Amino acid sequence: MVGKKKRNHPDIEELLARPWCYYCERDFDDLKILISHQKAKHFKCERCGRRLNTAGGLSVHMNQVHKETLTSVDNSLPNRQGLEVEVFGTEGIPDDVRQAHDQRIIAAYYQAEAERRAATGNPAPGGSQGGQAKKPKFESPADLKKRLAEHKAKKAEQTTNGSSGGNTPMEGMVQSPMGQSPGAYNGSPYAPPQTTYGAPPAAGYGSFPQEHGSQPAAPYQQPYNPPYSGPPGPQYQTQYPPQQGPPQTAFPPGGYQPPQNFNAPPYATGSAPGSFSSPASSHTPPAYGGLPNRPPSLPPAPGLTQRPPFGAGLPAPPHQIHQNSPATYNSPGGWGGNGWNAQNQNSAMSSVPPSQGYGGSYSTNAAVNELVSGAAREADEIDEIIRRAEAGIITPKKTEAVQPPPSTTATTAEATPTPAPEATEVTEATEKKSKKDKPMKMVYSDNDVSPEEKMALMPRYAFVPEGKAETTPADATVPPAAVGTVDA
Amino acid sequence: MAPAIQFELSNPPNDAVSSVQFAPNSPTRLLVSSWDKHVYLYETHGEEAGGKLIEKYEHRAPVLDVCFGVDDNEAFSAGMDWQVKRINLETREQIVLGAHGAPVKSVVYSKEHSLLISASWDCTLHFHDLRNPDKEPIKIALPQKPHSLSITPTKLVVAMSARLLYIYELQNPLLAPDATNGSSGLKPWQQRESSLKFMTRAVACMPNDDGYATSSIEGRVAVEWFDPSPDSQARKYAFKCHRQPDPENEGTDIVYPVNALAFHPTFGTFASGGGDGIVALWDAVAKRRIRQYQKYPTSIASLAFSSDGKYLAVGACPGFENGQEEYSGEGATKVYIRELSETEAKGKGAK
């Protein structure tokens, strides 16, 4: 420390050296504090308040003193409640758990580092990329939740309406400025990163231009389908939320322990052709008949829904896409309008160089990643929503590509100003509590009708009153109905 | 092995439990009302373990609530058949005291005033004067559907939909009982809005007549005081409980309804029972959790302390949850009796 300025962020070694609690994954400044934490939180007898040294000790104590059996360790994580592990301080932690913990620390560390770099614009030590984009402003969880709620409301409204219509494209456009710095995504800053991706995407794309003339659809799809099969996308997001495309390149591969995560970026970029090809397919349904089968390449969709950048990157509103208005594709810089025109006529994907489309869709991926960062859970929900949306929307146009409808509908959904009633409730709840409450899932959430009333409506419990029931016809029919009407 | 501090009653109801109630005198006499259209009377500490089912009282429809009357042989029941009945537990005689225009959700008995109060989804309260059983009950209209009733020697608390809560003073109907027959002009002493943001599930009054606790479908319990003075009102608080981290979504809680509340008759602490199958004891004054019992296999529907505070009856059956089309508590309904050690439910004192 001599003469060296202490940074406000610790070294990875320091982080890894911190003692942490096996039961709750909290870390502490020193071992003594950890031990007293464990005694107070995990090894304390509920009955007499005595603090034992280990879970086993507490178990024996409970058994002998209170004649009770201890089955789980208090205040512990769901998968760490067992008594079979004898932990004291950091001793006795199973190796696999320890390794998982270390990995998590490392991941978090690199992530934080990347964020710092993105925020400050400083290059990584030894890193070569020059003009890296600054990190866009990060949305607060509250805002995110609020938007999610609105979005969900829209979604709900839409599923009831049964179509993506009703929302003007303008709304989507208007909405876009509300997000943070859309420009950062679609603009030039992201064009360079493509090159850094070099190998993986190129491999994927490679086959594509070559075979374009003959069979555009099939070869195009194959390389991408496998990676897409569900898990990789979301998983990647949850684990490395805040990363965006460019910062990733800053990480030395070695820094990333879980290998599949490192593979993720290529997958994500894989979605580029997806979103890119799908509009095309909508123009030329027959040629791309196979496309809809593309597994739910959800990552782009959530990004689209939530992040206005998409609007800018792909301004074409949903119906326009379906209505074959190629002109709209001119706006995104990367998408050559001529390319689209050509496609419309000859249904050949080849006319559009992959890289161009890549630039556009890349922004969506970055958007996704960033979006997900704060709200992995939301992403899951959005996935779910989009899955549903897909199901709903695909039906009318079977031959069309899967991707554009959900994404665009989602975008417009969020844009519409009037939220459904359900949404207002959610927002209200989340807004009020977002400060200190976690997101929650209520087991029973009907705020107006009690469980008993619902049970009472079931034929199983229904009762048809005799005698006085004849007084009014309404009563005579079904008492449950009466139950409902009484509620005036 | 440790002696059994908890056991399961043999011959439990065949379907969901709506209420469990201990007798006012005997600490081992328990009434259980059930959706299987019966009221069950148990002697919880019979010769054989698991207690003894003394009698079953059949009703025409699911029974939504039950309470003891003046002694251990009198009970009142309320049910889906819109009726309020008096049951002589010895002779099995059932007398219909009155009828509502919809299922009757709750009944409470006031020993001090010889009153039986019933609350129905037809949005009325009926005050049955048990000294004049022939007289028509006094009917009071409520603004919303009642969900739960609780009584003290002087007050009645009615928890309703829309988070409304009315507190009645019990002298009133007795002081001016004859003035009105039929719809009474009895006004609530206090009209409050629940301090919880979601639907009220249960209300229970403190045995010392100072206040009450309410619980909501959103894993929360609030404790409030009757005294309207700002000082007392400032003491009210609410806390989260009956929640579990969602194993599938890190950072998310699964939130269960808090279905049951019961105050300990002597210590003034209270128990809460939730949809998570957990029963927890709380010290309302010190604002601390005293203990939490191991999870029961199903949701907790009802709780009751025995008159001497030595036993806690726990009615457990599957809880009705979101999106359920069908419901049946058949085979999964249990009643547990938990024996409390001397100081088990005693508050630790504020720290």
Automatic annotation (TrEMBL), chain A:
<dbReference type="GO" id="GO:0008270">
    <property type="term" value="F:zinc ion binding"/>
</dbReference>
<feature type="compositionally biased region" description="Low complexity">
    <location>
        <begin position="471"/>
        <end position="488"/>
    </location>
</feature>
<feature type="compositionally biased region" description="Basic and acidic residues">
    <location>
        <begin position="429"/>
        <end position="440"/>
    </location>
</feature>
<feature type="region of interest" description="Disordered">
    <location>
        <begin position="468"/>
        <end position="488"/>
    </location>
</feature>
<feature type="compositionally biased region" description="Pro residues">
    <location>
        <begin position="293"/>
        <end position="302"/>
    </location>
</feature>
<feature type="domain" description="BED-type">
    <location>
        <begin position="14"/>
        <end position="73"/>
    </location>
</feature>
<protein>
    <recommendedName>
        <fullName>C2H2-type domain-containing protein</fullName>
    </recommendedName>
</protein>
<dbReference type="GO" id="GO:0005634">
    <property type="term" value="C:nucleus"/>
</dbReference>
<feature type="region of interest" description="Disordered">
    <location>
        <begin position="396"/>
        <end position="448"/>
    </location>
</feature>
<dbReference type="InterPro" id="IPR003656">
    <property type="entry name" value="Znf_BED"/>
</dbReference>
<feature type="compositionally biased region" description="Low complexity">
    <location>
        <begin position="235"/>
        <end position="248"/>
    </location>
</feature>
<dbReference type="GO" id="GO:0003677">
    <property type="term" value="F:DNA binding"/>
</dbReference>
<feature type="compositionally biased region" description="Low complexity">
    <location>
        <begin position="408"/>
        <end position="427"/>
    </location>
</feature>
<dbReference type="InterPro" id="IPR036236">
    <property type="entry name" value="Znf_C2H2_sf"/>
</dbReference>
<keyword id="KW-0479">Metal-binding</keyword>
<keyword id="KW-0539">Nucleus</keyword>
<feature type="compositionally biased region" description="Low complexity">
    <location>
        <begin position="213"/>
        <end position="223"/>
    </location>
</feature>
<feature type="compositionally biased region" description="Low complexity">
    <location>
        <begin position="268"/>
        <end position="292"/>
    </location>
</feature>
<feature type="region of interest" description="Disordered">
    <location>
        <begin position="119"/>
        <end position="357"/>
    </location>
</feature>
<dbReference type="InterPro" id="IPR013087">
    <property type="entry name" value="Znf_C2H2_type"/>
</dbReference>
<keyword id="KW-0862">Zinc</keyword>
<keyword id="KW-0863">Zinc-finger</keyword>
Automatic annotation (TrEMBL), chain B:
<keyword id="KW-0677">Repeat</keyword>
<dbReference type="InterPro" id="IPR015943">
    <property type="entry name" value="WD40/YVTN_repeat-like_dom_sf"/>
</dbReference>
<dbReference type="InterPro" id="IPR001680">
    <property type="entry name" value="WD40_rpt"/>
</dbReference>
<dbReference type="Pfam" id="PF00400">
    <property type="entry name" value="WD40"/>
</dbReference>
<protein>
    <submittedName>
        <fullName>Uncharacterized protein</fullName>
    </submittedName>
</protein>
<keyword id="KW-0853">WD repeat</keyword>
<dbReference type="InterPro" id="IPR036322">
    <property type="entry name" value="WD40_repeat_dom_sf"/>
</dbReference>
<feature type="repeat" description="WD">
    <location>
        <begin position="258"/>
        <end position="292"/>
    </location>
</feature>
